[in-house]
Design brief:
By secondary structure, this protein is an alpha+beta fold. It is built from five helices and five strands. It has two domains: 132 residues, no CATH class; 66 residues, Nucleic acid-binding proteins (OB fold (Dihydrolipoamide Acetyltransferase, E2P), Beta Barrel), CATH 2.40.50.140. The protein has a five-stranded mixed barrel. It is elongated. It starts with 8 loop residues before the first helix and ends with a strand.
Length: 211
């Protein structure tokens, strides 16, 4: 293994990188911006893939410290701020922009095409990651364990089972939402109830705790 000191193999590699950067990045053209974005995004993706292969990386870390738990655990929201989504944006933004400048496209169409490609990939990656997380969450969740638990009405539940609302209930250490019906009077948003019967895998019958 090459030594890590300044005179070893790693030192020579670092010297080569810094020399290339000094010679090629002093004049910042749009081509170099696009190439830099593609390299940065590709490096992040390769690095995260390598960490995951060795079990050192999270499935998809988030850069938003205030991200809601339900979103991380497979909620209905698309997470555009995941590392993979942002890295995918950079890669395709850079590649399409690089191609456009190489084909002598004018600046504005090149930038628009690059941004459109990056944004499309960001949405695609976010959708794929949401699908994976929801599948993983559904595979570990046992809805039957919610029976008998107290819940809070999230969306108004019509009376006499004439329609569905939604409730929020804590099961297996997670806050989850299920569709709900009630045979009693209407349950307004924010009222307390209890899950008394499972109608389908994602729908429960509830009764008011105030009754």
């Amino acid at each position: 293994m090459a030594p890590l000191g300044p005179g070893g193999g790693m030192g020579e590699i670092w010297s080569t990188i810094t020399d290339w950067a000094r010679d090629n990045l002093a004049d910042w053209t749009m081509t170099k911006v696009y190439v830099g974005c593609a390299i940065a995004g590709g490096t992040v993706l390769l690095g995260q893939t390598g960490l995951n292969l060795f079990g050192l990386g999270d499935a998809d870390a988030d850069v938003d410290p205030d991200m809601d738990v339900d979103e991380i655990e497979g909620g209905d929201n698309l997470n555009f701020l995941s590392i993979r989504a942002l890295a995918g944006f950079l890669v395709f933004f850079g590649l399409v922009g690089w191609y456009g400048t190489a084909e002598d496209w004018s600046g504005a169409p090149t930038a628009l095409a690059a941004f459109g490609a990056g944004a499309s990939v960001m949405v695609l990656v976010a959708m794929v990651m949401r699908a994976f997380k929801k599948a993983h969450s559904a595979g570990n969740l046992r809805p039957m364990s919610a029976l008998g638990k107290p819940a809070t009405v999230y969306l108004k539940i019509p009376a006499n089972k004439v329609g569905k609302g939604k409730v929020t209930v804590s099961i297996q250490g997670r806050s989850r939402q299920f569709e709900a019906v009630t045979a009693g009077p209407e349950l307004p948003t924010g009222s307390d109830c209890r899950l008394v019967a499972m109608v389908t895998e994602d729908t429960f019958e509830v009764v008011s705790l105030d009754a």
